[in-house]
Design goal:
Length: 275
């Protein structure tokens, strides 16, 4: 029997996560998804693509944690992994990703810090824009789980929100986090490049590659590149037509603008040593 091909991540008509929550209180990334945005990673689609290229997906057993709308899942499937397994705690997200990958992957509802997957069962673990949303203990637990699931020599690839420079003033950093949390309605905790590397190394992983990109999530140029002109125009129409949506997007855009020199998208690929 031939396998059912994966669908476009943007083509599913299934409900978005948190669709029942008022726009005024919903998490910022899902507000942007309601507006029609499909690339929700801080460094954009190009940084995600570079990360996946360094992860080595072809012929690998791949696990993706918190795949969200399934945009990266679709890109992973295109690289012909030996297997693809997604873990997402949100049932709506899990259903959307299942529609994206079709018979070319498996999607399970579960926790990133406790996947239920066998030890040393994956060659690659991928996670984007999800560790940032965790506190220190939550971050460490998820990275430890990724390391547990990886086979020796396996790679862990992440794309998260970073702050710069490494010696950023602590008081200013605290204010940045507070303003960001107030704007996106998620207790986001971005970290410096040094701190992200330390997090990976704390789980026994060796960092092989690091890259950054401007945090331009709501910039016109980035949106045209990531969403296409048609997608950008769709987002613009949706925002213009909905007062509550427009207010939230403007609020987030103002915060991102205020700290645009201090925030970056950051991607890392690390491997689990052979011994």
């Amino acid at each position: 029997m031939s396998k059912k091909p994966a669908a476009s991540a943007a083509s599913t008509d299934l409900p978005l996560p948190h669709a029942d929550r008022p726009i005024a209180s919903a998490p910022g990334h899902w507000v942007l998804a309601r507006a029609g945005k499909r690339v929700l990673r801080p460094g954009g689609a190009a940084l995600s693509a570079a990360m996946l290229n360094h992860a080595g997906l072809t012929g690998a057993d791949v696990v993706e944690l918190a795949p969200g709308l399934g945009r990266t899942a679709a890109e992973i499937i295109k690289d012909h992994p030996a297997s693809y397994t997604a873990i997402d705690r949100d049932p709506d997200a899990a259903r959307r990703v299942a529609a994206v990958v079709g018979d070319l992957g498996t999607v399970r509802q579960g926790e990133a810090a406790d996947t239920g997957l066998d030890e040393a069962s994956a060659d690659v673990v991928v996670g984007e824009a999800m560790l940032t949303m965790q506190g220190d203990k939550g971050k460490a637990a998820i990275v430890a789980e990724a390391a547990r699931v990886l086979r020796p020599g396996g790679r862990y690839a992440i794309h998260e929100l970073g702050v710069t420079p490494d010696d950023i003033d602590e008081e200013y950093y605290t204010q940045l986090r507070r303003d960001l949390a107030r704007s996106i309605h998620v207790n986001a905790r971005p970290m410096t490049a040094a701190a992200w590397k330390e997090l990976m190394e704390g789980a026994g992983l060796v960092v092989d590659w690091v890259d950054t990109a401007p945090m331009a999530l709501l910039k016109v140029g980035r949106n045209i590149r990531d969403e296409g002109l048609g997608g950008f125009l769709r987002i613009a129409r949706n925002v213009a037509a909905d007062k509550a949506l427009r207010h939230r997007v403007q609020e987030m855009a103002a915060t991102f603008k205020r700290y645009e020199k201090d925030m970056v998208g950051i991607a890392l690929v690390a491997h689990k040593p052979e011994s």
